[in-house]
């Protein structure tokens, strides 16, 4: 399988090269040239598979011949063996035909573990085969950083530098990153917001001279196609367990960067019968404003009770725009240039109407988030984290087909966000066993000004491959 850039000017690459490249050389994002398609009888035959077995079926066509089948099998088995629930992504019922899929049973209690536990293993495998070294520079609004660190800290061939916005992630999220004391792990608290951190990641990819040719730069944010690929699996897993392909299933996805719900879009393109995809946003609602009004425009970023979604520029949205424009890379390059210059874009009405056919959307306030946490707990005794509560509220507001099961992706464990739980008048749950001493562990991180030169200088000074 070949991968092409959304901006049309970068060379097509195989999976191994895309894994190590991240952002394309023309500034675009890599997507498969063609998607694998699964027939209903194939999907039906997967009903008895466990999560890792299903992941192997879904992922193999994307990897093609880049990794031998027996090695890919071992990598996938090792990835999901470390999850704390034997179902890996268990499904819990909230009401009549209403469900949540728990994506927080990985080591860092968030959905990012599904992709980043796999990504770390894939990176180390490919780098070892090539006898190469890599520097990861990533940005996080909370969960990506800890999941990336957990996935990559055992890697012998990787140094990982994760930027988070200083004082803008929850304490549990910060400590999950900063208490991993390893020679190849570096946490940077940047005096800015998530979008500032993400902009510096993109700037690093645009000009990699600061690496001095001593290592290659690799992305762990969802601009890396391997992240999307891994997330496609749990859509198949939930849908099959709720009756697919014999009936269609709907999903509500709390999202800021558009990666998680884009994986659902890909699953539908691959043949999974998805009835509805609901984009659930908080106050930082650039995606909702586009889907509801054809306005993709930067506005002021507002801190909320759902910090992992406090994002104003949704990096993966470019992948959807690429498809909406008939995979015309030149058109996307022009749109992205306009967005960078003016901070706003709209698209032709008929393309926007196609987006509305693909997605519903809803914006949920902090007050509605707290109310939903309280309501669901009163109805069921089930405790939602604030991001999942946004998904549940959006699902209930946007649902168009009561016959289709509605699944909200439960993207994080509620223990990570005690402020929202307390505001709902409820007691925050205890930390899981493997994190009971989290608040006693030593922290290590560096506060830096919001300056690209300072970040790159820190990498050169502290990275193992520069010594």
Q: Which labels suit this protein?
A:
2 domains, Rossmann fold, 18 helices, alpha/beta, 5-stranded parallel beta sheet, 15 strands, 467 residues, 6-stranded mixed beta sheet, 15% strand
CATH class of the largest domain: Alpha Beta
Number of domains: 2
Low-confidence stretches: none
Distance between the termini: 37 Å
The name of the CATH topology of the largest domain is: Rossmann fold
Counted beta strands: 15
Notes on the structure:
Pathway: Amino-acid biosynthesis; L-threonine biosynthesis; L-threonine from L-aspartate: step 5/5. One of its GO terms (molecular function) is threonine synthase activity. Keywords: Amino-acid biosynthesis, Lyase, Pyridoxal phosphate, Threonine biosynthesis. It is an enzyme of class 4 (lyase). The chain has two domains: 3-111 and 224-422, Rossmann fold; 133-214 and 437-462, Rossmann fold, CATH 3.40.50.1100. Helices cover 43% and strands 15% of the residues. Strand 6, helix 7 (171-178) and strand 7 form a beta-alpha-beta unit. It has a six-stranded mixed beta sheet with strand order 3-4-14-9-10-13, with helices on both faces. Helix 9 (225-241) crosses helix 10 (259-269) and helix 15 crosses helix 16 (386-398). The protein is α/β, with parallel strands linked by helices.
């Amino acid at each position: 399988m070949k991968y092409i850039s959304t901006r049309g000017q970068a060379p097509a690459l195989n999976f191994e090269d895309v894994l190590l490249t991240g952002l394309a050389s023309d500034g675009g994002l890599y997507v498969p040239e063609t998607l694998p398609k699964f027939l209903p009888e194939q999907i039906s035959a997967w009903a008895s598979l466990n999560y890792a077995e299903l992941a192997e079926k879904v992922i193999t066509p994307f990897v093609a011949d880049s990794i031998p089948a027996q090695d890919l099998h071992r990598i996938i088995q090792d990835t999901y063996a470390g999850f704390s629930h034997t179902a890996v992504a268990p499904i819990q019922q909230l009401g009549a035909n209403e469900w949540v899929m728990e994506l927080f049973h990985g080591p860092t209690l968030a959905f990012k573990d599904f992709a980043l536990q796999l990504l770390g293993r894939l990176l180390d495998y490919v780098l070892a085969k090539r006898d190469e070294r890599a520097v990861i520079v990533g940005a996080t609004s909370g969960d990506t950083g800890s999941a990336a660190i957990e996935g990559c800290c055992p890697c012998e061939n990787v140094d990982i530098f994760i930027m988070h916005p200083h004082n803008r992630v929850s304490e549990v999220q910060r400590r999950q990153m900063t208490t991993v004391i390893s020679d190849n792990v570096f946490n940077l608290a940047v005096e800015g917001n998530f979008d500032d951190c993400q902009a510096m990641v993109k700037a690093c990819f645009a000009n990699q001279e600061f690496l001095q040719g001593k290592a290659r730069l690799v992305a762990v944010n969802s601009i890396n196609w391997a992240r999307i690929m891994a997330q496609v699996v749990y859509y198949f897993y939930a849908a099959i367990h709720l009756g697919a392909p014999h009936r269609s299933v709907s999903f509500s996805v709390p999202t800021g960067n558009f990666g998680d719900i884009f994986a659902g879009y890909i699953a539908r393109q691959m043949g999974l019968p998805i009835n509805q995809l609901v984009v659930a946003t908080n106050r930082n609602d650039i995606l909702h404003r586009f889907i509801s009004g054809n306005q993709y425009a930067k506005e002021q970023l507002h801190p909320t009770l759902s910090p992992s979604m406090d994002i104003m520029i949704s990096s993966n949205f470019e992948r959807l725009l690429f498809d909406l424009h008939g995979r015309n890379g030149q058109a996307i390059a022009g749109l992205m240039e306009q967005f960078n210059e003016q901070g706003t874009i709209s698209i032709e009405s008929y393309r926007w109407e196609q987006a509305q056919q693909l997605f519903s959307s809803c914006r949920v306030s902090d007050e509605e988030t707290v109310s939903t946490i309280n309501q669901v707990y009163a109805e069921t005794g089930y405790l939602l984290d604030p991001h999942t509560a946004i998904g549940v509220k959006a699902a209930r507001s946007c649902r168009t087909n009561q016959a289709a099961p509605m699944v909200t992706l439960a993207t994080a464990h509620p223990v990570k966000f005690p402020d929202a739980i307390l505001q709902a008048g409820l007691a925050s749950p205890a930390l899981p066993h493997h994190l009971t001493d989290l608040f006693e562990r030593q922290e290590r991180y560096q506060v830096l000004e919001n300056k690209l030169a300072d970040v790159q200088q820190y990498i050169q000074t502290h990275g193992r491959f520069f010594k």
